[in-house]
Amino acid sequence: MSAGSVDVAVVVVTYNSEHDIADLLDSVPAALGELTYSVVVVDNGSADGTLVVLDGRHDCVVVRSTNDGYAAGINRAVRSSPPASAVLVLNPDATLDPESVPLMIDVLRKPGVGIVAPRVREADGSLSPTLRRGPTLGRVGGLSFTGLAAFTERIEDPREYEAEHEVDWAVGAILLIDRECFDALGGLDESYFLYSEETDFSLRARNLGWATVYTPQAGAMHVGGGSGESATTHTMKIINRVRLYRRLTDDRRAWVYFVLTVLIEVRRGVLGHRKSWPTVRALLRPSTRPAPLGASDAFLPR
Length: 302
Hints:
Pfam families: Glycos_transf_2. GO terms for molecular function: transferase activity. Residues 10-129 form the Glycosyltransferase 2-like domain. There is one protein chain. By secondary structure, the protein is of the alpha/beta class. 33% of the residues lie in helices and 22% in strands. It is built from 9 helices and 11 strands. The strands form 2 sheets. Strands 1, 2, 3, 4, 5, 6, 8, 10 and 11 form a 9-stranded mixed β-sheet that branches. Helix 2 links the parallel strand 2 and strand 3 (61-65).
């Protein structure tokens, strides 16, 4: 590596994360072990005490930003980091186990590997099912209760978390990415603003020959929902799923995916999921879609 470079560039995006970020940063030194590293935290306009917490620390570089979205924040953090052979993307509500990153680096150095996901647990110690299958028409409903791969993206079978293997994609709370892979893809796609950016990244990486690999040897904890989910963020999540699928396939299949998504959200609304009704409205009335997505110019979101 060149002068001033490090082994790992640790990047974090905060948004109203005052109750989580200190625990994450405290876990970093032991997690990196003997690796050299940098830590850059981009704050996307927090309105709570996040910046007070960050300003009181001396173990990270803080970049103040307006909220241009999660992907934009990660890309900005990478640009603000020194040269590194790997990028460690972390959610502020995650914590890393000691020596976890060297174990992930060992996997990342294997031929063809571009992204590594660790074994993640919930706050109570139970397995967090972070592995996912790629989106298809059959999986649009997220029918996890069937236990059938044809109908669910989320992989819940504990046996799938026992051994190292390649996956379609993994939840982006803790991901180690080869810097060459990151640069080859131009970073995360900022058009998603929030949600689906890690899905898009892994699938685009695979198209270029970079695999996403899960390893149970490295551990971490993810509390989840640190910034909370509102009706708006739920709408963003669902619309971005439609946008992602449209970018992966032809318009005919995308229309079917769209219609199925509307029906599923209506069903959820009838069953009491209140956040689904604003989502149905946004799906059927493009002008009501969240402005940051830039997806209001066509009925079938681009």
